[in-house]
Amino acid sequence: MWKYIAGTIVVSSVAYSLIKYFRGGVCHCTARLDGLVVVITGANSGIGRALALELAQRGATLVLACRDVEKGLNAKKYIISHLRNKNIKIFVKHLDLCDISSIIKFSDTLNKEFREIYALVNNAGVFYHPQGLTKDGFEITLQTNYLGHYILTHHLLKLLRKAVHARIVNVSSEAHRNVNIYDLKAVTKCQEEFRSHFVAYGVSKLALVLFTKQLAKKLSNTNIIVNAANPGNVETNIYRNFPLLSNPWLYALQWPIRCLVVKTPKQGAQTLLHCLLTSNRSTGQYYSDCKLDLPSPIASNDQIAKDYYELTTEILSDRFSTESEC
Ligand SMILES: NC(=O)c1ccc[n+]([C@@H]2O[C@H](COP(=O)([O-])OP(=O)(O)OC[C@H]3O[C@@H](n4cnc5c(N)ncnc54)[C@H](OP(=O)(O)O)[C@@H]3O)[C@@H](O)[C@H]2O)c1
């Protein structure tokens, strides 16, 4: 009998410690964002929607940038019904990061409709997406996660500059550590396939950390701070193409472990929220679990960040110019 009780206590304590450890940091900032405009890409599900809910609670005016407006409107309904507050200002706008003309149209609309923007959260993303090219001729994962956000950010800089303080948060991932410099340079050959789906994702997330570093430098004398956030391992739709999790049987087998070690979207949104609310105005940094973290050696290299920014500008040069914005 005593053995059974002791066993139960040990198992429960281990499970509790694991859950506590893996749920990660919690944002304790109490700042409010009343009336400040925050644009979130991919805000209709997962971490983006959870972040939108947290920000709506803090009074922000939200622009949910979604490739499927219907899903965006459902997210808006979810937030309003959750907070039981019809006065929250939420705008749902169409944005497809795989289509440069859609990014430009979206930015033009915002430039016409808003006087300033407090924050841009580059959150939308795909993982393990079947490889292929967008209509603009770039690899799908690379354009969705990185190139599209690169263009969007430059098109919204004018609005961000008009705010007293402004922030850009690029949602990256620990997967940025899993690729090498040769994989990274594959962007120059981005009309070809990457070595694997993992590499495509890793490169896109490394590119976001490098972009963060270089953009922060370019904007160092302005009102805008730029940081990268790693949400951790979060239970969301992002795994829809990943065979180990999209197969219901394999998923069921892993479920007991996943319950212990995988974050909820609300927990995953905490580091992003921290980057938006913290009074620490350091810029060009990588955050994990609501704390500053060191990114990979490649991502920490100033020269690589500069070269990669220039390379990206060059491959996008016939689509837009960063000159006027930066
Ligand atoms: N979940 C994790 O474990 C994890 C770990 C590290 C980093 N992250 C990062 O966290 C971010 C949010 O992902 P999530 O986990 O919350 O996954 P999610 O629920 O699948 O959310 C991704 C969002 O991106 C949108 N999106 C995809 N392609 C797009 C496009 N071409 N144009 C505009 N929007 C597009 C999706 O729209 P649809 O609903 O229409 O597909 C969805 O709203 C991603 O950048 C991801 O890489 C996630």
UniProtKB/TrEMBL annotation:
The keyword Magnesium does not apply. InterPro entries: NAD(P)-bd_dom_sf (IPR036291), SDR_fam (IPR002347). It comes from the Eukaryota. GO terms for molecular function: oxidoreductase activity. The keyword Oxidoreductase applies. Belongs to the short-chain dehydrogenases/reductases (SDR) family. This is Retinol dehydrogenase 12.
